[in-house]
Structure formats: structure tokens, C-alpha cells
Predict the structure.
Amino acid sequence: MTTMMALRAHARGGPEKLVYEAAPARAPGPGEALVAVHAAAITFAELTWDLTWTTRDGRDRTPVIPAHEMSGTVAELGPGGAATGLGVGDEVYGLVAFDHDGAAADYVAVPAAELAARPRSVSHTEAATLPLAALTAWQALVDHAALQAGDRVLVQGGAGGVGVYAVQIASILGADVTATGREGQQDYVRKLGAAAFVAVGAHGTADYRAAAPGGGFDVVIDTVGGAVLDACYDAVRPGGRLVTLAAPPSAQRAAALGIHAMFFVVTPDAAELARLAGLVDDGRLRPVVSQTFPLREGRQAFESAGLPHPPGKTVLLVR
Ligand SMILES: NC(=O)c1ccc[n+]([C@@H]2O[C@H](COP(=O)([O-])OP(=O)(O)OC[C@H]3O[C@@H](n4cnc5c(N)ncnc54)[C@H](OP(=O)(O)O)[C@@H]3O)[C@@H](O)[C@H]2O)c1
């Protein structure tokens, strides 16, 4: 087994547990591709997810490697991997399963069938911001909220990693989008396609009541959780859809109001990734890079979560 450089945590915890070190690079298994990672994006909250640390049946899987979306080049195919049509040298991007080692490393092994050709009109760094964040936004709006052109949509956290794509995709699909976020992010989020923007106020939530259509929004996407999710229920029109990403909604509250509320976890989908790559290459969907860090400074990348940063995703530069 060869070695590679990786960002790893040997015990559960926050960014302080992350170390940049040599780690084993495993050979691709049946149906897998080993991808030479060029860039990997992080999700600030991922160190709090159980699946980052344990298998699906609860067994400890430390040491772990974070960062579950990446763009890179196929370096090797495991047995049967070529059946997907992928070849060594192909430039691909993909979502790495949350209960597997992530892409904050020189190499990552991923089922070949879950990879798609990366958008070629943008850099690996930009492409790496899409497979988790944009796919989550797509699945929230299209697969779960069944968005229709003309729907009035509220995106809570419109400048965040998922939010910048929820705003753009909803707008591309013909929705009328209102977004919330920090004061200084208004101009940027409007350029992404939000018709209205409501800034977070002194109480830590955005008061979007004045921007809400009579009767409420058709669709609300909550990427924030907590008090923000609490306020979302009343923003949805009766019969409308609330999709939550940070925490599951209250089924009782939703039933009492006559709204459809749902939580889901994004799943790999090569066909949807190909569709997103097409939107990027057509110039309709803009990848949004908030900030970049070299892989060896991955700990600082996670530590930047609480600091002011531009909209979009934080990316680790690997090659
Ligand atoms: N279920 C799934 O499949 C799935 C997939 C991806 C992500 N997630 C979850 O979704 C959540 C968002 O992920 P992300 O990567 O988009 O995180 P993120 O980049 O941190 O985005 C969250 C955004 O919300 C903003 N925000 C914070 N408080 C707010 C408020 N009161 N009103 C409006 N905006 C506010 C944040 O601003 P500041 O940065 O200035 O605080 C940030 O721009 C996380 O909990 C993550 O675990 C779930």
C-alpha cells in the first residue's frame, strides 16, 4: 500500500483534532475509481455529523478524513470500474459518501458510477464546490420540494455553501426567490438571482414577513436550523413545502399548519451531477468559492467557520 498526504482526525472532536500527515492510500475496490484529488470542499458542520465518525451501525471509524465533495482526475480503476465508461485520466467530480474517508487527501476512492465529468469551463477549485452543495440544493428543490416555475421560494441562509446554489437553481427553474443572510451579502446574493434579500437583524434572525407573499411562500428551504427553522413554519402557505437541511422539522407543527415538511440527506447521483455540470458550462450556474486553503492548512479552513467570510464554499487546494 502506498502512502499519501491527508488531513485526518484520530479522535472525535472539532477542528483542533485535525492533523496533516502521511496516511495509507488504499487501492480502489470493485467498481471503484481512485481519484487524484485536485480540490476538495469542506462543510463546516461535517465534524458534528455522526457519520463522519462512525459506520452506519455505529462502529468507530477513526482515523477519518473529512471533505466530501471534490474535483480531480481518475488515477486508477478497481475491478469492473471501467464498466461505467470512465477511464484513467478522465477529469471528474463527485460526492464522497459521508461514512467513508473524504477527499481532504491526495487520493480518494469512490464508486465509479457515482462520478460525473466535471464542468470544463471552470477550474477544479470551482468544480469542487458543487457535488455536495449544489446537489443538495438540486435535490431539495427538485426531488423533494417538486419546485414549479412561478413558485415563490424563501432560501434561509442564501449566502452559505448550499444557499448560493439554492438561490441560483430556484431562479434558473423560474421561481421568484427571496433569500436571507448577513447584511453585507445582499448585493452578491441578488446577483445570483434573488429578487429580494432580507438581512439578519439584531435578534439573530431575518424578519422576512414584509417580503413574504400574501398567504406565504410556496417553498421554504432552511439551511440554518435552530431559531431560523422555528420561524420557517409560519412562512409557508397552507399546502406549501418546507425542506430542512440542518435538522429534521417537527411533523406535528407541520401537520397542524397543513404544510409538507421534510428533511433528507443528499445522495450521490451521477445523472444530476452531469445536469449541474451542463448548467455550469452553459454559463447559467456559477460556482461560488468563498475562500481557499492549501490542504496542509485544512485545520485553519475548518476554524474559519465562525469568522466573516465571503459567500459560498471553502475549498482545500490539493494539487
Ligand atoms: N441534509 C443534507 O443533505 C445536507 C447537505 C449539506 C449541508 N447540510 C447542512 O445544511 C446546513 C448548511 O450547510 P452549508 O454548507 O450551506 O453551511 P454554511 O456555508 O455555513 O451556510 C449557512 C449560511 O447561513 C448563514 N446564517 C447563519 N445564521 C443565519 C440567520 N439567522 N439567517 C440567515 N442566514 C444565516 C450563515 O452565515 P454566517 O456564515 O455568517 O454565519 C451561512 O452563510 C448545515 O447544517 C449542514 O450540516 C445538510
Helices lie at 124-127, 133-144, 163-172, 186-191, 226-232, 251-257, 270-281, 298-303.
